[in-house]
Amino acid sequence: MRSYFTLLLPIALVLSVPPQAAEARSLSRNEAIALALANDRELSIAALEIERAASSFRWAGRLDNPELEVSRGGDGIGLDDGESNYEVAFSQRFPITSRLKKEKGLKKYEVLLAEAEIAERRREIAGEVDQAIVDLLATREQIRLERKLLALNREIVDFLKQQQKRGEVSSLDVMQATLTGRKLEQAAKGQDAVERQKLFALNKLLGIEATSSVTITENLKLPGSAPANEADFSTVLGRRPDYVLALAKIDEANAAIALEEASRWEDISVKLFVEGENAVDDPNGLERNSFAGFGISIPLPLRKRNQEGIERAKIDRRAAGKGVESAAFTIRSECEDAFQQRKDAWELATEASGELLNLAEQNLKEFRKAYQEGQASLIQVQQAQEQVLELQNASVEFTAEYHRAAARVRFVTGNYPNLTISNSSK
Q1: Residue 383 is part of a domain; what is its CATH number?
Q2: Cα–chain-centroid distance for residue 353?
């Protein structure tokens, strides 16, 4: 028993230590994106692909290892006259074309391809963070409006309770107003739960503790004028890593063609050797002699000239060209769609948060005043209150849709910080 409790004591002490308070952060949208990119575990793993490609580039274009040949022979199984010979040779293979240079050139584009692939993933993560921030801000704005309306309802309840004490209203009016307040409280609690879920989703993208508190410095205000309906397409293409990736595949394919064409001739082999022999020479008997020289071996491309590799590389080049055309068409279509969605969303959000909402809020204010003066019923006040809540929620949702559309525009145009593709192969 004593050993059992001795074992449990450290565990109990660990469990009794209160958890540290969740970290509070205040971030702009760009800061949140930068934090997500810095903390993303998959990106840190993918970055190793760049290191692999860079390592392959550094070691590419080198000659094969030389070969050392040593041989010795004798006539022990023959006449056994003591005759023998030996040879020591050193050979090295050399390309007669610029194959090694072409090989290194191909490896350089492999580094660029790896960088472009990771940059594209960074763009995707940035877009996910942007959308998650909009969702969180929209939820928080709905909570703010519901709490504001809840505070107004509490003022009505307090006013009714005072009137009830003076016998001017019945307890039913107080109960009805209290019930409305409970419904508003329940809706607010539901939004609190939604906010926690949105915050958990954002924190996961940011790579921080799920319970961390995050404050976004931006808000969901609408711009005063309609947003632009287009952008400079050449600038957009330069920002899109997937388009840069498609272009890099053309360069890679051209480099591959050059390498395959340079590989039509196999390497020649140059050999330096020293040779010696002990041979019987009548009538002088056993004599020793030595030789030195060099040799060269040139393969003749009579049957195989790497036609298959060259043809395959040219097919890859045509495919890469079509890939660039496809990428440009897709990006243009995405931009046109995203810009139009943002424009439409701005118009709807401006209308929803404009005159109609102002009229409903003024209407509620007038009904509250009229009720206090005995010129309106409680039901009329509650209906006006519900109308304001409905219009406010619609305004928040339309405004959030505008910012989602704006985030979509930012995503398709690649307008994020730290997405530049560096040429680390230089």
Answers
A1: 1.20.1600.10
A2: 35
